Amino acid sequence: MSLREKKKQDTRTRIFEVSGKLFKDKGFENTTVDEITKEAGIAKGTFFNYFPTKESLLCYFREQKEEFIFSIMENQMSLNAPAKEKIKNFLVLVAENYEKDKELLKLLFFEHKRLVMSSDQRPAEKKQRHQRQERFISMLSDFLREGMNQGEIKKGIDLKIASESLNAIYFHSLMMWLHSDTEYSFSRDISAKIDIIFEGIGV
Fold first, then answer.
1. What distance, in Å, lies between the first and last C-alpha atoms of the chain?
2. CA angle 24, 26, 27 (to 5 degrees)
3. What's the rounded Cα separation, in Å, for the pair 28 and 123?
4. Is residue 6's pLDDT more than 80?
5. Dihedral angle computed from the Cα positions of residues 139, 57, 26 and 181, in that order, rounded to the nearest 10 degrees
């Protein structure tokens, strides 16, 4: 990365961090671009160079989370470890990242959902969400296929169904955690569920 690119990335990150703090303090709707630029110490034009609207911060947040998820996934794929360990480590690492700032995650996640539902973005967003899920499921399937080839997972398991089940459990658990008024560890919750999946519940 060149010095210029690094400076641009630092500015974008600074804007997002300041925005996140203001969103938590005042709420998304009540925070203005003027307040963000003043707090970040930048000109209004600089803000719009990086984010055409305040709402585009929500898309940036989602994109950053997706990049993080897939980078962790690819890193785990490169490790010499059992399939269960890779899957568990991957999902727990993502959960631990989410736990660092649950309130901001919750606020931005639901604001993004509200924005999509109230605009003409629904068809495009639905297609993009499907593509993201397909990529996520495909990578989980790769983990499982590797485990099957190594003799760690029973032969004959339908990898598509197994990876879709892992995907469903993970995102259902995420939604339950975000909606819950009771504080508990999302990472420990998903870790326990992965153990149950691999151990099975039958006698």
1. 55
2. 70
3. 24
4. yes
5. -10
The whole-angstrom separation of Cα 61 and Cα 202 is 41
- DSSP 8-state secondary structure symbol assigned to residue 201: S
Q: CA 37 to CA 14: how far, in whole Å?
A: 10
| DSSP character string of 43-82 | -HHHHHHH-SSSTHHHHHHHHHHHHHHHHHHHHHHTS-S-
Determine the Cα–Cα distance for residues 29 and 160; give it in Å rounded to an integer.
Answer: 41
Do 166 and 198 touch, CB atoms closer than 8 A?
A: no
Nearest Cα residue to 125 out of 53, 52, 62: 62
98, two tokens: 């989410």
**Rounded CA gap, 89 and 66, in Å?**
17
Structure token digits, residue 104: 């901001």
Mean pLDDT of the chain: 88
The DSSP string of 140-195 is HHHHHHHHHHTTSS-TT--HHHHHHHHHHHHHHHHHHHHH-SS---HHHHHHHHHH
Q: How confident is the model over 57-106, as pLDDT tens digits?
A: 888 888 888 888 888 888 888 888 998 999 999 999 999 999 998 988 88
